[in-house]
Design brief:
The structure holds 2 protein chains of 2 kinds.
Chain A (H helix, E strand, L loop, with lengths): L1 H16 L5 H12 L18 H12 L6 H7 L4 H13 L12 H13 L3 H4 L17 H12 L9 H6 L7 H10 L2
Helix pairs in contact in A: 1-2, 3-4, 3-5, 6-10, 8-10
Chain B lengths: L3 H15 L4 H5 L27 H4 L27 E7 L5 E6 L5 E5 L5 E7 L2 E8 L7 E5 L2 E5 L4 E4 L13 E4 L14 E2 L5 E5 L14 E5 L7 E5 L7 E3 L6 E5 L11 E7 L4 E2 L5 E2 L3 E2 L17 E5 L3 E6 L13 E5 L12 E7 L5 E8 L3 E2 L2 E2 L3 E6 L5 E5 L4 E7 L8
Parallel strand pairs in B: 13-17
Antiparallel strand pairs in B: 1-29, 2-3, 3-4, 4-5, 6-7, 7-8, 8-9, 10-11, 11-12, 12-13, 14-15, 15-16, 16-20, 18-19, 21-22, 22-23, 23-24, 25-26, 27-28, 28-29
Classes of the chains: A mainly alpha, B mainly beta.
Chain lengths: ~190, ~425
């Protein structure tokens, strides 16, 4: 993973220096970690496909402004202009959305996760099919490890949201419930 | 934090309200997935308590503003409406998430932010107005106040200051901490601050969630000396106030307070409250808008035991910044009236608020009327801007901040030379 990031950063500095490139060329270093076809195969690194453009824009803005701290992304975003942020978020939104994993699912975990997702009304903001809306992200079929990591970070407030909503919501979700919730959202069909 | 006994008591309550399903049932899941598991009772303290299952409610979620401020030519100025005789212009733009306003004695306007890390200054030099970032790397620095040369800044859980701010606008030092005995909750953690006629700094601590039982460190307004010493609780039963000011005649504190979500489309209304004595209790989370006992937490409580609001500001309208009009530019009928910025609702199918209203008072300090003043921020049930705070300039004109567009507007009365932008 570390190697991939370094390679991507090396590519990034080249990619961002040339202004005449197409968005596909400029996005190549992004997709090296986040997946060519919208679905990430990199540990703890989110799939970007079908992400809500307003949400993607907020995250890219937060990376640029270091309001969300993850060094490789802060580095990637630091020289992007406002227009760049809009172009990249629109590009991300147009990538194919990730599909549910094809491996056999653990029915009991799915059931527990579904109860939790419904109990906590995740569908209030994330939409009934968890595809997100506007500034609220798509979470359906996101990588399970990334979902679990993110939920845990919102719960202990090591990841600061754009606003307070997820920190608020996660106050009442148990640490021991995060695994099943992430499993369900990653596999939901 | 909540004690175990109150948590289990509320679990029981939630179970009773939602009927057949209890949390113990959730713990014993069948091995095969049920066809469509019904929603379990929400955990106590969940911000979703009260939300019905259904199409209409599923459309409602907090509305986040765009992160990038609108360029001056994209601001909704042409859509904004004011009463006849008034004018509205753009005062400054390009300040991401512009929120609370304060003004120095030399006329510099300070602007806090909530979703970014910056405090801005709008300064005029040689007739030219410019925006500078005077502090960054702060955490939700929503509140700003000014007194005797010093700028006070409220972050989520601390208050700091910059002395002689007007002398150091071009190279300000890092703010100096004066007070940090504050909870760190994200929910309602951002702060409006103000300095009273008693020369004390007033600092609210919101309720740490939509509708929750909380400890004695939350749900209140504190006041303290300007060096952060001598802090005391001034008012309690305050859910989340993001704006207050002092009546110029009675010197009493008036504050807006936002009602809870998910009770219904039409109630509770946001409150305009008046503090008549230190220690007064305004009812949250047990009693809302002076006459609604909370359906979950209000059992055994009586609204008579709490101070009722002097005015109701509309359901879910998010009444935030407010100031008494003490200037001389506006017509006489506005003298000592309160201008209130309503950020606008999210927890309501048809958006309401998203405007500045003028509240006129009776001689006894109660509310006589409330009328729209600055409107046009809602178009097709969507925001094109959202007012956060209002503030008077020394000439009697009024500034209005808009965190959706990252801009500040100026409202004048009569024939004015409108500054070129």
């Amino acid at each position: 993973m570390q190697k991939t990031i370094i390679a991507a950063l090396a590519l990034a500095s080249i990619a961002f220096s040339a202004s005449a490139e197409t968005i596909q060329e400029r996005a190549a270093p992004c997709l090296a970690c986040h997946g060519e076809r919208g679905a990430s195969e990199t540990e703890n690194t989110p799939s970007l496909g079908g992400q809500q453009a307003p949400y993607a824009l907020i995250q890219l803005f937060m990376f640029r402004e270091k309001l969300r701290v993850f060094e490789p992304m802060n580095e990637m975003a630091k020289s992007l202009t406002d227009d760049d942020l809009r172009i990249f978020s629109d590009f991300i939104a147009a990538l194919p959305k990730p599909a549910a994993p094809t491996d056999a699912v653990d029915a009991a975990r799915m059931a527990r996760g579904e109860v939790l997702a419904k109990q906590n009304r995740c569908n209030t903001c994330h939409n009934t099919d968890y595809s997100g809306k506007e500034s609220v992200p798509r979470i359906a079929n996101q990588r399970e490890d990334y979902l679990a990591k993110t939920l845990a970070e919102y719960k202990d407030n090591t990841r600061h949201g754009y606003d307070a909503t997820m920190a608020d919501v996660m106050q009442t979700v148990g640490k021991d419930q995060i695994g099943d919730l992430a499993y369900y959202l990653a596999h939901v069909r | 934090m909540m004690s175990m006994s109150s948590a289990s008591r509320r679990l029981l309550l939630a179970g009773a309200v939602f009927g057949a399903f209890t949390l113990s049932a959730a713990a014993q899941q069948p091995a095969t997935p049920p066809a469509a598991p019904a929603a379990q009772p929400l955990p106590p303290g969940s911000p979703m308590i009260g939300r019905p299952d259904g199409e209409a409610a599923a459309k409602l979620a907090p509305v986040a503003p765009p992160p990038i401020p609108a360029s001056a030519d994209k601001l909704p100025l042409a859509k904004l409406k004011v009463p006849a005789g008034f004018n509205v212009e753009v005062y400054a733009s390009g300040m991401a998430n512009a929120r609370s306003l304060a003004q120095s004695d030399r006329g510099t306007v300070f602007v806090g932010s909530r979703l970014v890390d910056k405090v801005y200054a709008i300064a005029e030099k040689d007739g030219k107005r410019s925006v500078k970032v005077i502090a960054s790397g702060l955490y939700r620095p929503n509140g700003v106040a000014f007194k005797d040369g010093t700028l006070y800044i409220a972050e989520l859980s601390k208050i700091s200051k910059i002395d002689k701010i007007d002398d150091v606008l071009d190279s300000p030092p890092k703010p100096t901490l004066i007070y940090d005995k504050l909870p760190k909750d994200e929910a309602h953690g951002w702060k409006f601050i103000g300095i009273g006629p008693d020369n004390k700094l007033y600092v609210p601590v919101g309720q740490p969630g939509n509708n929750v039982l909380h400890d004695a460190d939350h749900g209140q307004i504190r006041r303290m000396n300007l060096d952060g010493s001598g802090a005391e609780v001034y008012a309690v039963g305050v859910r989340n106030t993001v704006g207050f000011d002092w009546n110029p005649e009675t010197r009493q504190l008036y504050f807006t307070d936002n009602g809870r979500d998910w009770l219904s489309e039409s109630v509770p209304e946001d409150e305009l409250n008046r503090v008549t004595k230190a220690g007064e209790d305004f009812g949250a989370p047990f009693c809302y808008q002076g006459n609604i006992i909370d359906q979950e937490l209000g059992w055994g409580k009586d609204c008579k035991n709490y101070s009722a609001p002097v005015g109701l500001m509309g359901p879910h309208t998010a009444a935030l910044g407010m100031r008494f009009y003490t200037g001389s530019m506006f017509p006489k009928q506005y003298k000592n009236a309160i201008f209130v910025a309503r950020h606008g609702s999210w927890n309501k199918s048809q958006k309401q608020g998203g405007d500045v209203v003028v509240v006129k008072l009776n001689k006894d300090g109660t509310v006589k009327s409330m009328e729209p003043f600055l409107t046009g921020f809602i178009e097709d049930n969507k925001y094109v801007g959202r007012p956060v705070d209002v503030m008077l300039l020394k000439d009697g004109s009024m500034l209005v901040s808009d965190d959706w567009n990252g801009a500040v507007y100026r409202i004048t009365y009569g024939k004015q030379k409108v500054a070129a932008q």
